[in-house]
């Protein structure tokens, strides 16, 4: 089965970590908008220069920019895929719906990873990326609650949402992700 999936959840919940494992176990294209943006920043491309300051403030990069990235990758791909970090707000979710209708690639499932704020902050501080200091992390959590969390209801209303218990080791959470995939 070639899955078409997306991971939803706050920064630090382990979306990127589990997405890598899942994509490799099921031969899926792993599309992380965060990783793709960081690659642009590293390459100092015009897109990267525009994104860098926004990311370091913990805010969301413009919808148009992120959408262009996702469209170009999905349009040229045959087979399953896994979106990680996208969509991040309602306009992105609606644009994704349109794109998937256009490509005739319906989404199968949304995997929701959630964790309490203290554990999220602890994990991100331990990682220590450029946008992983406590002030910026708290702001990213606020942006998540305001802009991304409404997508939980959006996908739940369609019966596509599967919550994954996200505490415990990477292996334990990995098993929970696989269970959620098997669920009807
Ligand atoms: P992202 O790159 O998406 O990063 P994230 O939300 O911070 O991380 P994630 O949840 O994937 O956590 P991870 O597995 O790495 O976003 C960064 C920025 O990019 C955004 O703030 C925004 O500016 C921009 N951006 C991205 N997408 C966008 C979009 N669609 N629209 C607009 N802007 C966008 O795990 C975190 C840490 O926890 C790691 O160190 C990991 O090793 C550890 N960990 C994972 N699982 C664990 C476990 N079970 N136990 C202990 N530690 C664990």
Question: Would you write up a description of this structure?
Answer:
By secondary structure, the chain is an alpha/beta fold. It is built from nine helices and five strands; from the N terminus they run βαβαααβαβαααβα. A five-stranded parallel β-sheet has the order 2-3-1-4-5, with helices on both faces. It is globular, with a radius of gyration of 16 Å. Residues 11-17, 33-34, 37, 54-55, 58-61, 66, 85-86, 88, 92, 123-124, 127, 131, 140, 169-170, 173 line the site of BIS(adenosine)-5'-tetraphosphate.
How do the helices and strands line up, and which of them pair or pack?
Blueprint: E1 4-8, H1 15-26, E2 29-32, H2 33-42, H3 46-57, H4 63-75, E3 81-84, H5 90-103, E4 109-114, H6 117-127, H7 134-148, H8 150-156, E5 161-165, H9 170-182
Parallel strand pairs: 1-3, 1-4, 2-3, 4-5
The structure holds BIS(adenosine)-5'-tetraphosphate.
């Amino acid at each position: 089965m070639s899955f078409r999936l997306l991971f939803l959840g706050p920064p630090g919940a382990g979306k990127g970590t589990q997405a890598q494992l899942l994509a490799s176990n099921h031969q899926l294209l792993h599309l992380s908008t965060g990783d793709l943006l960081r690659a642009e920043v590293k390459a100092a491309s015009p897109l990267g220069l525009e994104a860098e300051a926004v990311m370091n403030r913990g805010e969301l990069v413009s919808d148009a920019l992120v959408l262009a990235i996702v469209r170009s990758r999905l349009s040229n791909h045959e087979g399953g895929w896994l979106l990680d970090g996208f969509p991040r707000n309602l306009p992105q979710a609606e644009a994704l719906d349109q794109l998937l209708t256009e490509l005739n690639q319906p989404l199968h499932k949304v995997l929701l990873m959630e964790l309490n704020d203290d554990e999220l902050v602890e994990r991100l501080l331990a990682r220590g990326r450029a946008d992983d200091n406590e002030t910026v992390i708290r702001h990213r959590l606020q942006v998540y609650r305001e802009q991304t969390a409404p997508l939980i209801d959006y996908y739940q209303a369609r019966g596509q949402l599967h919550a994954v218990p996200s505490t415990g080791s990477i292996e334990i959470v990995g098993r929970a992700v696989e269970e959620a995939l098997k669920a009807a």
